[in-house]
Specification:
With about 70 residues, this protein is mainly α. The protein contains five helices and two strands. About 55% of the residues lie in helices and about 10% in strands.
Amino acid sequence: MITQRLMRNNLRVERAILRLTQEELARRIGVSRQTINAMEAGKYVPSTVLALKLAVVFAKPVEQLFALESTD
């Protein structure tokens, strides 16, 4: 089975810049570590509220964190 990426993101890079673990980021935005892992792997598209919470943590616009794949 081929897994299709739903949306590109650079959460892993941004998280590394702030030296946050997946667990620390998850705690800050109120989700599980598994949710962060799924987002970083492109297997989960966050809700608008979750995307905005991430934007606050990283102090960047949502558009700098997420981008649609060309097939979307």
